[in-house]
Amino acid sequence: MALMEKFRKTEFYKSIFRHSYQDTQRNRALQIVDNVFLHLHPVRVPRHATNIGFTWGMGGITFLLFLVLTITGVILMFYYRPTAQYAYEDMKYLMNDVPFGPLMRNMHRWAAHAMVLTVMLHMFRVFLTGSYKPPRQFNWVVGVILLVLTLLLSFSGYLLPWDQLAIWAVTVGTNMARATPLLGHEGPFGPELGMRINNDVRFVLLGGTEVGPPTLLRFYVGHCIFLPLIAVIFMAVHFWRVRKDGGISGPESKKNF
Amino acid sequence: MQQFLEIISKPDNIPIILLLVGAIFFSWLAWTKARRNDALEVPVEAALDDKVQVWPYLVRVEFLATIAVMAILVFWSVFLDAPLEEAANRALTPNPSKAPWYFLGLQELLVYFDPWIAGVVLPTLIIVGLMAIPYVDINPRGNGYYTFKERKFSILVFSFGFLVLWVSLIVLGTFMRGPGWNFFWPWERWDPHYVAVLTNVDLSELLFNIPTRLPDNSINPVAMLFGAVVVLGYYSIGPVYWMMKRKDDLMQKLGLVRYAIVSFLLLTMGGVVIKIILRLAPMAFGLNPVKYVWVTPWFNI
Ligand code: HEM
After folding, report:
1. Is-cis flag, bond preceding B115, omega within 30?
2. Does the pLDDT of residue A256 top 70, yes or no?
């Protein structure tokens, strides 16, 4: 620390940092409120909220992974064309010839898997600390929507490599839609309502009677634009509600015990 | 065994291992914290209710966590390539064809239920049921700290759903279902030519020898009625009986609507377990597995 003090007095240091930073309560608070990103936080939080053993950090990590996915995803979009003719070739090119292509794709893939995992664990934590109880009931509902959106994002991305793994996993996954009650052509009361293979929900989802080129385009647009947009909106609501509902949950106060 | 290791170490299956390890680790962590709090007068979280400044006390934790996560992710991505198989080919169906790992619990349910239940109704009920939790759990205790003592019932139900049903069905569906979705033990080889000889029966046939189909292959109305009585009875007798018997405070506060929702969701979760047992248990006694409880011309349960 003494060394640091000396360093602070050098011309070199002063040429970089033009004025001093005094470690005061006020400055610590200003660090948070004067920063557009950090001011998502309150200035002060209960001590237990900084304990990673309490929140497991899972909500924050889920958000971090979402940011990683956004950045690596945009980079992948530069090299990927969502047509049956090019999609697979573009993946090959990305994995073999694009500098850092494999790193970007791998990070996108593994972060996606990890996000599904962390969002489940986040939900588990929120349940176990009873943090869905009043006044946070609605934020739990928003959370469930985010969980579903996370799964849909991951699932729609699964198709894009357009390899055997992709189309068959998505074929299996979307086959369920045939059996939707009322709306699927093989579901209870579906045929009675005039559902056929070429007009039921599965047809709408796939843009055809099987997983084909139109499905690829639909899933691409959903994966890159629609779902992330909706997820961002719900995340904004989610974070805002965490603040409005009184910050990280905790026992009301000692008096209640 | 070697094949099992191969499947376990498939890059796309690593998240399942992590899920298993994570679920066990965090259950243990929460359990120790709950036990510790339950032994105290005031939970630790309440004893620490002074406030600290976010800068630096929270921001530094976030910063370190970010670095750790990024380091793990980069390491993972440098050493393990995302899979890229042969180009998509509609003419070549892999056997088994599996959905992404997080849906494998649902895919496993296809063994026990028709697709409209396993693929549509149950997922919908999971989502709706999760959303309903804050509104039906009216226990005000255990809000914002780890405890088991104060919320035994809700914690047991949720943990059963998450750990036993969701996680272990994913593990089963991924690691022990081979070609033809046949069951294989970890030490067995996946034999693509293996044909499980199963003659399915329906519940009325197993119990009372009432065939579900008449000789002309139309539905036997007696069996249909039997199924209706079993299913509707399952959903109504227990809840109604319990409601008559327990006219206490809890019932009063819960109210009829919440009570109906809770019992429907719980019985559905129980029903999944019962259907799994009906399918697997008879085989242990050399009997035929049960396929349906209720057969109608429009749907089967
Ligand atoms: C994309 C998915 C999600 C993201 C990015 C996210 C992010 C976060 C973050 C950063 C927090 C602050 C506390 C913490 O880190 O634990 C939080 C709190 C919370 N989350 Fe989420 N979350 C997501 C999904 C969910 C899900 C699936 C649920 C529940 C079903 C949920 C319910 C809640 C609740 C009730 C709180 C308040 C907890 C408290 O005050 O202790 N969230 N979320």
Report:
1. no
2. no
CA B145 distance to own-chain centroid: 26
Instruction: With beta carbons less than 8 A apart as the criterion, state whether B115 and A178 touch.
Output: yes
Give the closest residue (by CA) to ligand 1 atom 7: A59
Query: pLDDT tens digit string along B78-122?
Result: 999 999 999 999 999 988 889 999 999 999 999 999 999 999 999
d(CA B190, CA B179): 7
> Omega into A191 within 30° of 0, i.e. cis?
no
- Number of residues written out for chain B: 301
Q: Whose CA is nearest to atom 16 of ligand 1?
A: A59
How large is the ipTM?
A: 0.94
Task: Name chain B contacts of A25, Cβ cutoff 8 Å.
Answer: 53
Rg (CA), chain A: 24
- pLDDT (tens digit, 9 = 90+) per residue, B226-252? 999 999 999 999 888 888 887 777 778
Q: Is A91 touching ligand 1 by the criterion CB < 6 Å?
A: no
Q: What is the pLDDT of residues A174-198, one digit of tens each?
A: 999 999 999 999 999 999 999 999 9
Nearest chain A CA: its distance from B113 CA (Å): 12
Fold for A53-247, please state it: Cytochrome Bc1 Complex; Chain C (1.20.810)
Each residue's pLDDT tens digit, A200-253? 999 999 999 999 999 999 999 999 999 999 999 999 999 999 999 999 999 876
pTM: 0.94
Instruction: Give, using CA atoms, the residue closest to atom 1 of ligand 1.
Output: A146
Taking CA atoms, what residue in A is nearest to B57?
Answer: A50
Best of A165, A215, A257 to mutate (most B CBs within 10 Å, chain B)? A165
B52·A29 Cβ contact <8 A: no
d(CA A191, CA A166): 30
Element (H, E) at B248: none
Q: Does B153 touch chain A (CB under 8 A)?
A: no
Burial class, A107, CB count within 10 angstroms (exposed 0-12 / middle 13-18 / buried 19+): buried
Residue extents of the structural domains in chain A? 53-247
Quick: pLDDT tens for B29-39. 999 999 999 99
